[in-house]
Amino acid sequence: MTNSDNTYGTHNKQSKIIAQEDDGSTALETFADVNAAKTHFFTTEALTVMDECCTVLEWALVGNTGLKTTFAFGTKGSGTAEADDWASQYNTRKTALIDADGWVKSQTPQFTFTDSSDHLV
Question: Does pLDDT of 61 surpass 90?
Answer without folding.
Answer: yes
